[in-house]
Backbone:
């Protein structure tokens, strides 16, 4: 029995060692010098076949408190610890920790992902509970009784403004999000129309100045307290909980197909333990074909079609950004742990 246990332990150690080496690409160099326009994702993809696994193979240098803060000129080295490959960061020769403190303050670490370039693709839509939009203040008219307003225009809204909130988001009811399998109502899509500043209150009528608009502001559009959300450029991709599975329930823009940098809604949320930064592989449902030998019909296996990143979560659902697609991604396609 003891020999069996030792043999099983040996097999487990061997499997663990293989798993640690498996993510590395073939023919990678021993060293890589970080360039100005690099991102952590770029560098990780340079070394790894699965870039999201990079936190698991970094070796933390004692002199570097945060390995996420990597600067141009730093050297990424491939080393072996106990026979297992690891990546380590060495500060470039031109970087002085002292006494040039001011110079360090002016330097910026490379981002995990180029989210400053992607920010325009990340939706400002919100998901609210049923009844929230119906109870919110609503637009009654534009200046001079116009029915629509735009950027720079003033408009009037009616509702309870006693809380003295200065800035509001303008939203339109975009319909319900429903789980295709369980038919559960996951939330109501509050479509982002723009933003406005409260200028004057007269009883229950507020005068607003439009500060941002994505389309014309119409009568009956709703106002919700402004939600300040800033995409953090130090955000890092990560693996979701094991055996995470879900479905794409909607594609932003009211279309059925999604591709690179499109936003999709998922039936996975906080209650499913998914987090901002989690990466999920997308799969297309296998086609139904006729078995010409035995007869009848069979469903072919699902085929992987791309990769998405969750960038915003709600209680019952989330939004994801398509980072990679080798074929069109559609509503009802499945998502799984990569």
Residues:
């Amino acid at each position: 029995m003891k020999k069996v246990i030792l043999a099983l332990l040996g097999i487990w150690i061997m499997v663990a060692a293989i798993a640690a080496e498996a993510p590395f690409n073939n023919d990678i160099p021993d060293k890589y010098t970080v360039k100005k326009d690099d991102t952590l994702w770029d560098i990780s993809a340079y070394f790894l076949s699965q870039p999201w696994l990079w936190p698991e193979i970094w070796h933390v240098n004692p002199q570097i408190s945060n390995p996420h803060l990597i600067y141009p000129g730093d050297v990424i080295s491939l080393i072996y610890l106990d026979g297992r490959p690891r990546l380590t960061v060495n500060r470039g020769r031109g970087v002085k920790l002292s006494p040039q403190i001011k110079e360090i303050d002016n330097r910026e670490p490379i981002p995990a992902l180029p989210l400053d370039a992607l920010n325009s693709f990340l939706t400002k839509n919100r998901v609210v509970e049923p009844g929230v939009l119906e109870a919110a203040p609503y637009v009654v008219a534009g200046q001079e009784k116009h029915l629509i307003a735009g950027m720079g225009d003033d408009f009037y809204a009616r509702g309870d403004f006693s809380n003295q909130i200065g800035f509001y988001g303008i939203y339109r009811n975009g319909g319900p999000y429903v789980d295709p399998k369980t038919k559960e109502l996951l939330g109501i899509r509050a479509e982002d129309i723009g933003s406005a500043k409260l200028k004057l209150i007269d009883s229950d009528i507020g005068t607003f100045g439009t500060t941002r608009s994505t389309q014309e502001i119409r009568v009956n559009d709703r106002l919700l307290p402004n939600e300040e959300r800033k995409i953090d450029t130090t955000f890092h991709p990560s693996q979701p909980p094991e055996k995470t599975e879900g479905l794409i329930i909607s594609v932003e823009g009211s279309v059925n197909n999604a591709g690179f940098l499109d936003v999709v809604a998922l039936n996975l949320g906080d209650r499913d333990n998914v987090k901002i930064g989690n990466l999920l592989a997308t799969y297309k449902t296998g086609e139904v074909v006729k078995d010409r030998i035995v007869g009848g019909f069979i469903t072919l296996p699902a085929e992987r079609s791309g990769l998405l990143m969750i960038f915003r979560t709600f209680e019952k659902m989330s939004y994801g950004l398509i980072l990679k697609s080798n074929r069109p991604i559609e509503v009802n396609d499945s998502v799984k742990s990569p």
